[in-house]
Specification:
Largest sheet: none
Strand content: under 5%
Radius of gyration: 23 Å
Structural class: mainly alpha
Number of helices: 7
Helix content: 55-70%
Number of strands: 0
C-alpha cells in the first residue's frame, strides 16, 4: 500500500505554542482536555439506564441481586438520574461508613430520606 507523503508543516502548526512556558502549556493542555471530554461528561450526566446503574454498583462490590434491588428502589423514588453509585458513595461519606455498608443499609430501608435531598 502506498501512502502519500505529508507535507512538513510542524513549525506552522506549533506557532501558537512556541512562546508558551511549561506552565502555560500545561494549563493549555488541560483546557483542551476539558473541552474534549465535556460532551462525554454531559452525555453521561443526562443519559443513564437501570443496566448502566446496576453495572456501576456491581463494580462497587454489590452482588447482582443487591445491585438490582438498589436500582429498582432508586427508580421507584426517581433518583436514578443522580447516579446510583454516586448516591451510595455520598451516603457512605456522610455517614462515615463503607460503600457496602451504605448500600446494605439502603436495602434494609434506612437513609432513603437523606438521598432525596
Amino acid at each position: 500500500m502506498r501512502y502519500m507523503e505529508r507535507p512538513d508543516d510542524f513549525e506552522e502548526r506549533r506557532a501558537h505554542l512556541k512562546d508558551m512556558s511549561d506552565a502555560e502549556l500545561h494549563d493549555y493542555f488541560w483546557r483542551l482536555v476539558d473541552r474534549i471530554v465535556a460532551p462525554l461528561v454531559e452525555e453521561a450526566r443526562t443519559h443513564t439506564s437501570p443496566s448502566i446503574e446496576r453495572s456501576v454498583l456491581l463494580r462497587m462490590g454489590f452482588s447482582s441481586v443487591e445491585a438490582g434491588n438498589l436500582v429498582a428502589e432508586m427508580a421507584k423514588r426517581s433518583l436514578l438520574g443522580h447516579g446510583a453509585g454516586r448516591l451510595v458513595l455520598e451516603l457512605a461519606q456522610v455517614r462515615r461508613m463503607s460503600v457496602r455498608e451504605a448500600g446494605l443499609a439502603l436495602l434494609q430501608g434506612n437513609f432513603w430520606e437523606e438521598l432525596a435531598r
